[in-house]
Amino acid sequence: MSGDAVIVWNEDGEVHSAQWRSESATPAPKRVVVADDRMSADTAYRLACEGTAILWRGDFQNARQLLQAMARRTERRSGRSGKPGKAAEAKVAAPDAFHLHRQAQAQRARTLGMLLLPFDADYAIPLRRAPDVRHACTEAYGPPAGPFVASLRELLGLIGAHEWRKKGVSIPALGERIHPHYGVFSPLRGEYVGLVAEAPLPAGAEALAFDIGTGSGVLAAVLARRGVRRIVATDQDPRALACAAENLSRLGFATQVEVVSADLFPEGRAPLVVCNPPWVPARPTSPVEHAVYDPDSRMLRGFLSGLAGHLAPGGEGWLILSDFAEHLGLRSRAELLTLIDEAGLKVVGRFDARPQHPRAADPSDALHRARAAEVTSLWRLAAR
């Protein structure tokens, strides 16, 4: 969140100000102009590239069209339109390809984030043809706390999250849907869920299991469906805790699964400890990215270093991890195995699955080579 930051602008010869809200903690823009339907996409894009924010006073739907036009200009400028040539494709395998990709993403986000909307104290948008977004904003932000200004791009993310929360994500291993909240990773990638659903349970796991970093609660729900009588699911993100509790209650597992606020492990030991940490050692730039990006592999290192002390005798730790970072040159297989060894653990088995998400088969994706080679693994670990 952007805290107590304030955005200031001149309008009709007077100085105005409002609270600035940004879930990605983007600083409040220092230069702001007021615009309406008369502003062209070329002008808006030029201003945004120069770091000048545009506070919209025109028609809401026209603002959406303007944002789309700005996005097209961003893509043309970065060369993202069309399929990459052989030279560009060859660069994908280089260790710095990911960082260049992230830089381009960040620049695009900064540019498109310069188109701003006003919000009233009750989350209503005082623009023509504006949708009713009060429910979506309340889900993401909590109870209203006064008028503010935020980017249209952020609002569209809130609306999308609200729709996903209503619709839910089908989980074949459960025969049910999981409903992710705003800022909580959506279990769209089913391969890691399938691995947990199919791997043989270690002895004693029917009695107790820990789910570390539960997120939406999907893996805890799968373990409960498999007959594990008691599961302790941990997370330190309030949104994830609320999301997991809601999903598990709706699925009828509230008495079977205890949702606990903790940084990694709960107290005690269990015959089975499951963790699906962020896969890429990089800095997240938005709430939902915390489930994918983990600076210096903090959660991975923490899970491995503490696992032996939380395993019951003969128990197993299941580390569900993609090798995407390995194909990007951000972490080697040798480094992962060293972390496992230094934690006093040994590998007793592994199950692999290929990703089925559309980006893995999209040759126009900037990181296609890495995505096409990616494998997600369930590492069965035991104390030495």
From TrEMBL:
It comes from the Bacteria. This is Methyltransferase small domain-containing protein. One of its GO terms (molecular function) is protein-glutamine N-methyltransferase activity. It comes from Aromatoleum aromaticum (strain DSM 19018 / LMG 30748 / EbN1) (Azoarcus sp. (strain EbN1)). CDD domains: AdoMet_MTases. InterPro entries: DNA_methylase_N6_adenine_CS, N5-glutamine_MTase, SAM-dependent_MTases_sf. One of its GO terms (biological process) is methylation.
